[in-house]
């Protein structure tokens, strides 16, 4: 496999792009991606058998099952980061080791229905919060302990909009390559 082919498998929709010019114009689209993610993910994986769920989306990558559970883990952290940034002044957030999470027993073996149900409830609550935020709220920040950077909630929203589409594309592209759809 060439490095270009591997790069396409890693980033099927491309790397995260954040518009520098008037990013607030994208907020409703990004919220829409967050809102639609659980149903889109559910529709992708609902007919997959265990052996399919335990197939990696690329060489050296996670299985579909791990991706679904990773999305639940990651999006939980994102939601809490929003709450912290909205209630504290530039809080220092807690980082987590996503690879270690994905290697845990539950990420490798739990039924995906657990995370799908969780994502449905989590995203409904998250979208309710997002839709109630004022424009200036999206400019509130948190600090990341590893990068030492301040992250605006606007940027975090863009990242998680991309994150939803990114991992769903991993699954969809694998399913197409394997003729599962």
From TrEMBL:
Keyword Repeat: no
InterPro entries, A to Z: DinB-like, DinB/YfiT-like
Source organism, top-level taxon: Bacteria
Keyword list, A-Z: Hydrolase
GO molecular function annotations of the record: hydrolase activity
Pfam families membership: DinB_2
SUPFAM superfamilies named in the record: DinB/YfiT-like putative metalloenzymes
Keyword Chloroplast: no
Annotated DinB-like domain residues: 39-171
Gene3D superfamilies named among the record's database cross-references: dinb family like domain
UniProt name for this protein: Metal-dependent hydrolase
The organism's taxonomic lineage, starting at the top: Bacteria, Pseudomonadati, Bacteroidota, Flavobacteriia, Flavobacteriales
